Amino acid sequence: MNEKAHRYLTLFLTTLEISAFTFGGGYVIIPLMRKTFVGKLKWIEDGEMLDLAAIAQSSPGPIAVNAAILVGYKSGGVPGALLSILGAVLPPLVIISVISAFYQAFRSNRYVSLCMNAMSAGVAAVVIDVVISMVGDVLKMKRVLPVAMLIITFILVQFFNVNIMIMILVAGFVGYLDYLFSRRKAS
User: Fold this and answer.
1) In which region does residue 59 sit, left (phi positive, over 0), alpha (psi from -120 to 50) or beta (all else)?
2) Confidence class of residue 83 from pLDDT cuts 50, 70 and 90?
């Protein structure tokens, strides 16, 4: 098997495995992708993964699929993106299909309900870990603005009921101004 085919197979199997063994959506899949593609395979730099995660979160659609597309494209171009999509959506598609066939039995089962509640606690812990890790990465870059925007946005949305879409637009505008300012400063 040539190097390109091996890379595509690894990309597909890796996203398939990550997708098959994560529960809780995109916020859970991002640290696993980071660990694999940055730490283990070394196909992506840590800063790039942080950028890809931010783009995946701000793009429409499921974060896990968006992240898989971006990581796949970065690692293997268009074929890599397509294989990553397939690897990311195949496990949930199969699982949801099986669950839907037996929905009535699952819906009223006390043990399934308890298991789902326990998994929710684990998902919350992973999401908190992702937030702390990403804030740590931003702080390592010695950039105060993104952390300040995170805190301000959280306060405005959580305590003052500011519409999240407004905050996304404001954050995008502030980020663009920061980009222009840093670009001008570098010239």
Assistant:
1) beta
2) very high
